[in-house]
Amino acid sequence: MGSVVRMGPCGGGGGGARDVDTRGVDRVVKVVVRHGDTVDAVSVLYDRGGRQEWTDLWGGPGGGLAEICLRPDEHLTSVEGHCGEFEGNFVVRSLTFVSNRRAYGPYGRPDGVPFALPAAGGRIVGFHARSGRHLDAIGTYVKVERQPR
Question: Which UniProt keywords apply (predicted)?
Fold first, then answer.
């Protein structure tokens, strides 16, 4: 049994709040990123008790499309990136997703202030964000297993 800790968000204060109820979520299965000169949007596929559920597209439809498909024995251990000015707004400029197997990215342009959201020995089981036309900010939910006494 473990607890889930909310980390972040990193980025700007624009856009609307986006969130996921992480109760019963076993793992992140896939992350879709729309990106170009910045991170336009993300969408995440979760496994919740054997059922797969997508988030909405958090952000706008611009940019190219990248899909990160995690293997059944793979989990995310960190999200890293850069935040900076884009079209007059402070947004997420780049994202890199790091798993227990490899790094995916960077997606977008690594310009601006670097940030990192490490799972610190746990695993990332969800995301929260702010978005409008672009991904304004991103944060994580980290599941930390309790150590036996």
Answer: Lectin
CA–CA separation, 14 and 133 (whole Å): 10
User: What is the rounded CA–CA span in Å between residue 12 and residue 65?
Assistant: 23
HSE of 42, CA atoms in CB hemisphere, 13 A: 31
- Under DSSP, is residue 69 helix (H, G, I), strand (E, B) or coil? strand
Closest C-alpha among 9, 16, 67, 64 to residue 37: 64
Is 3.10.20.30 the CATH classification of the domain at 2-145? no
Q: For the chain, what are the domain ranges? A: 2-145
Mean pLDDT of successive 10-residue stretches along the chain, which has 149 residues: 90 97 95 98 96 97 97 98 97 98 98 96 96 98 79
Cα of first residue to Cα of last residue in the chain, in angstroms, is 13
Residues 6+ away with beta carbon under 8 Å from 81: 10, 39, 92, 93, 94, 95, 96, 106, 108, 110, 114, 115, 138
C-alpha to C-alpha distance for 132 and 77, rounded to whole angstroms: 26
